[in-house]
Amino acid sequence: MRKLQNILVTGGAGFIGSNFIRNLLGEKDFEGRVINLDKLTYAGNLENLKDVEKNHGGKRYFFVRADICDSDAVNRVFREHDIDTVVHFAAESHVDRSIHGPAEFIKTNFMGTFILLEAARSCWQGKEGAHFHHISTDEVYGSLGETGYFFENTPYDPRSPYSASKASSDHLVNAYCHTYNLSVTISNCSNNYGPYQFPEKLIPLMISNIREEKNLPVYGDGRNIRDWLHVDDHNSAVWAILTKGKSGETYNIGGENEWENIKLVHVLCEKMAGFLGKEKEYYKKLISYVKDRAGHDRRYAINCDKIKKELGWKQSYDFNSGLDMTIKWYLENAVWIANVKSGEYQKWMEKNYGTRA
Ligand code: NAD
Ligand code: TDX
What is the maximum span of the chain, computed from C-alpha positions, in angstroms? Predict the structure, then answer.
C-alpha cells in the first residue's frame, strides 16, 4: 500500500474535489496533509470547504489560490509543501461551456496538466514513492449506440472540446509515465451526482429549477443516456487507486446505473413533489424540450470490472436513496445555490442564454 504524506489536490474547491478533501481528512488510513490548489473560477467555492477549514485549517489542510497554468506558483507549492502525491481534479468541466468557449478548456485542461506534470518531473527527481493521479472522464471514449460498454482499452474518440481537452491531457499523463518514468495513474469516471455540484449540471440544475418552478430544459429528444455515480463512490475509487493502483494503469469508474435523461428528470419531478407536498405529476409541466446540445453524445456506459477485481472497489450508494439524500441537501442549502449562482456564472448565462436560468 502506497504511503501518502503531503497530497496536492488541484481543483479542491469544486464539486468532486471538495467532497474528496472532506472524505480524505476523515480517512482512517491517512494522517498526512492536504494542500488544495484552486484558481476559484466560477465553479470553485471555498464555501464548499467551510467545515474543513474550521476543523483542519493550518494543521492538516492548506488552501492556495493559484492557477495550474502558473508554473512558478505550482513549483513553489510543490517545494514549500514537500508534495509527494498529486490528485489532479482541476479542470473546466462543463460540456456546454466548452462549446461556447473552448479556449479556456484547452488552457486549463491541457496546458494546466502539462505544467503540473513538469513540476512533478522536476521536483520529484529521485523522490521515493511520489505519485501523480489524473482524474479524467468516460467522455474521452466518445458515444455508444444502444449496446456496448467503454473498457479501459476502448480507443479514444472525444467529440466535444471538453472531452478532447481531457483526452489530450490523458495522453500527456501517459507520455510522462513512458518517457520520464513518472509514477502515474488515470481514472475515467462516469457522471457524478451529490452535494456541492454546481447547478449547471443536469441533476442540481433540475432540482434548483423545480424548486423555483422554472423551466426544465431537456436537450433534444431527452433520450440520451448517462451512467450516474454518487460522488463519494467516485472518491472511494480514487482513494483505492492512490493507495493500491499500479503505475501506468487506467481504471474505469462507473455507477452501472444508466438512465435516459427524460426518465431521470421525471423521477426528480416526482421525488421533489413528494418532498415539497405537491401531487406526483405537478412539476412535470415545467419540462420543455429545447434545442439539442451540438454534437450531443448519445450514450455513455462504463465497464468497471477492472477496478472491482484488481483493487476491490465497489459502489456503496443505491441510486434511489442517493438521489433522496442529494435532493434533501439542495433543499436545505438553498442559500448555497443562490451564492454560487451569483457573480461570474450569472453574467455568463445571461450573455449566452438570456435570463433562462
Ligand atoms: P468543477 O467544475 O465543479 O470544479 C473544478 C474546480 O477546478 C473548481 O474549483 C475550479 O475553480 C478549479 N479550476 C478550474 N480551472 C482552474 C485552474 N486553471 N487552476 C486551478 N484551479 C482551477 O468540476 P468537477 O465536476 O468537480 O470535476 C472535477 C474533475 O473531475 C474534472 O477534471 C472533470 O473533468 C472530472 N470529472 C467530472 C465528472 C462529473 O460528473 N462532474 C465526471 C468524470 C470526471
Ligand atoms: O439543462 C440540461 N439539459 C439536458 O438535457 C443539461 C445541463 C444537461 N442535459 C443533458 C445533457 C447530457 O445528456 O443531460 C445529460 C447530462 O448533462 P451534464 O450534466 O451537462 O453532464 P455531461 O455533459 O454528461 O458531462 C458530465 O459527466 C462527465 C460532467 O459535466 C463532465 O465533467 C464529466 O466529465
Answer: 64
